[in-house]
Amino acid sequence: MAKEVESILITGASGFIGSFLVEEALKRKFSVWAGVRASSSRVYLQDREIHFLEMDLTRPDAIRARLEAHKAACGKFDYIVHCAGVTKCMDKEEFDRVNFRQTRLFADILRELDMVPRQFIFISTLSVFGPVREKSYDPIRETDTPQPNTAYGQSKLKAERYLQSLPDFPYVIFRPTGVYGPRERDYYLMAKSIRQHTDFSVGFRRQDLTFVYVKDIVQAVFLGIEKQVVRRAYFLADGQVYHSRTFSDLIRKELGNPFVIRLRCPLFVLKVVSLLAERWAKWQNRPSTLNSDKYRIMKQRNWQCDITPTVEELGYRPAYDLERGVKETIAWYKEREWL
User: Fold this and answer.
1) pLDDT tens-digit readout, 157-194
2) Which structural domain range is residue 100 located in?
3) How far is CA 4 from CA 10, 24, 46, 62, 82, in A?
4) CATH number of the domain residue 25 falls in
C-alpha cells in the first residue's frame, strides 16, 4: 500500500526563507501549500506542484473560512512552518501586530478548528535574547534570560511565549542568527556598497558575529520534522565565530578585490543617523533599512550562540561556513545582475 503523501503549509512562502523551504519540501515530495497574501510576489514560486493558500491574517473571519474549507476538502495539514513576519516597519507597533498578535491568532484558529498539525514550526530569531553575555563573550544559551532590546526581538519573544503557554501545542522554535543567502536584500546592500568602493563598520569595541546560510535553516527545519521533536527551541548558526570585518572581506574577495574606502562609525553617530533615517522614512511612508531597531542590533557586541542541542538532538551539521555561503550568494547576485 502506497504511503500517503504528507502535507505541509509554509506561511510567508514568497519571502526569502519561505521560498527556500518550499523548494526543499517539493524535493521531499510533500504536498506543498504556500501561504501567501494576494499581493505577494510569486517570482520564486513557479513550480506547478505548489498549491496556494491566500492568507490575510488581518482578516480573522476570512482566514478561518479558508482553513475550514481546506479541512473539508483535504483534511488538516501534517506540518505548518510559520515563516510569515516582518523584520522592519514604519511603526514599531506593527512588529507586535504582525509577529505576535497574528501568530497568536493563527494558533488560536488552528486550535478552534481542530487543525493543529503534528508540528507547528515557528521561525523566530536570536534577537529574542538581546545583548546577553556582552562582557564575557560567552555563547548565548537557551537557559539564559531573554532581554530583547528591539521591538522586533520583543515581538518574536511574545509569540514564542504564547506558543509555549498553550497546553500540548506541538511547537518547534528555531532562532537563527544573521541569515544570508541568495534572494536576501539587506546583506545585498553591503555587497552593493563594497562594489561602489565603500565599506561601513560600527563601533570600536570587539564584536563577535555569527551567521547562518539560508539552506542550513532549511536543513534544520526538515531535520526537526524527521525527528518529530515537539515543544523545543533551537539556536541556528554555522558554528563559527567571525570578526566584524570578515563578511565584508569575503564579499570583496568574490567581487575581485575592488578598492574600498573603509569607514568606521562611532555608535553615537550611528544612533543619530538611525533616528533621522527612521523619521525621514516615516515621512515618506515607507520602512527604512536603517532605524533605531537596526541601531540596537548593530550595537550588540556578542552574537555567539550555543548550537550544541541543535547538533545533538537533530543531527544538524551546517553545510556552509561563511566563505562558502558568501561565494554562492555573490555568484547568484551576479547571475541575476543584481551586482
Assistant:
1) 999 999 999 999 999 999 999 999 999 998 999 999 99
2) 7-179+212-238+304-319
3) 19, 18, 25, 29, 23
4) 3.40.50.720
pTM for the full predicted model: 0.94
Q: Is residue 70 part of a domain?
A: yes
Q: Which grid coordinates belong to 93?
A: 507597533
Bridge partners of 211? 178
Q: What is the pLDDT of residues 273-329, one digit of tens each?
A: 888 877 787 777 777 777 788 888 888 999 999 999 999 999 999 999 999 999 999
The residue assigned the cell 532549511 is: 218
Task: Dig out the grid coordinates for 217 from the structure.
Answer: 535553516
Inside any domain, residue 197: no
Residue 58 included in any domain: yes
204 burial level (CB within 10 Å; 0-12, 13-18, 19+): exposed
Distance, CA of 261 to CA of 99 (rounded, Å): 38
| Cβ atoms < 10 Å from Cβ of 318 | 23
Domain count, the chain: 1
In a domain, 17, yes or no: yes
